[in-house]
Amino acid sequence: MAILIVLALVVIFAIVLLAKTVKIIPQARAGIVERFGKYHGTLTPGLNVIVPFMDKVRYMIDMREQVVTFPPQPVITEDNLTVSIDTVIYFQVNDPIAATYEIANYIQAVEQLTMTTLRNIAGGMDLEQTLTSRERINTGLSTVLDEATGRWGIKVKRVEVKSIDPPVSIKDAMEKQMRADRDKRASILTAEGQRQSAILTAEGNKQSAILNAEGAREAQILRAQADRESSILRAQGEGQAIQTVFQAIHDGSPDQSLLAYQYLQMLPKIAEGDANKLWIVPSEIGKALEGLGSTLSDMKGIPANSGGPAKRVDLGPTEPALSSPDRARSEADAAVQAAIAEANASANGIREQVQQVEPPVDPSADA
């Protein structure tokens, strides 16, 4: 029985001895070995053997890059405003021996160093610069921490400012200021839009007025040209008509007989009309007709008898040339003689009708 107890004790001692001798270090970690309280060596990842009861793995250092976030720290800016800044630090242990023996707690040391450096940097800037200078704060923190933690065996990879929170009253004032700035920019943009709209509208009205004026001017010019052409054509037509009539008169060699015939032709037109119910023919109509020719013959330019062929008036290229002037003159004379004979016949007929209608005049009554 005693032998079994001894064997059991030996087995337990062997197991403990083996556990004290063999050390397994995980990947990306380093073990700091002390012998009798003094640094003896550094264990690398894998299976390691140490002297039991003499060597001891005092610290296990994580060699991976670590991310440490610190609670928001109150910082006073240059314009005496307190802001809360939250930071994040990325660092890595390069020298496990220095990280173990040069600093007692490198995490706490980095936090305090970050706090003091952040207050130093933000103390030299006002609130607006602090809120808009994140990159400047990050760069300043990285430089100071890298210089300070180099002797601790720590490499600061990156420093980031998570948030910068000003006081609530400052937030309200900033929001009001930003709202006022946005309202100002909106008003400016609205005014510029209205100005551009008014300018474009005025330019459009100007162009429309110019085009309307040009159109009215062109229309007036065209109407004036049309009126001028119409007046010219009308005047030319009237001139040609007058020339034609004048030519016909000259061709006919008019005398007092033709004028008497024209007068007789106007007599029936006097009786025309619905209002002419009664037409009184004077008894002296015959004598009036006989003296009409002699009276009109005294007019300037109208002879009592035509003295031979009349001189032809040239009407220009619009009038066809006469192939036989003598024949045309003879035809005109025949037409005039026929008109005179018709006028005499009409005058005789009218004289007879008057004599039949009018009672005989008693000469003794006049006496």
Automatic annotation (TrEMBL):
Keyword Transmembrane part of the UniProt annotation: yes
Matches recorded under PROSITE patterns: BAND_7
Keywords per UniProt: Membrane, Transmembrane, Transmembrane helix
Renumbered residue ranges of the record's region Disordered: 300-367
Domain Band: start-end pairs: 20-178
Name under which the protein is recorded: SPFH domain-containing protein
A Pfam family hit: Band_7
Annotated localization: Membrane
Main localization category: membrane
Bias (Low complexity): 333-347
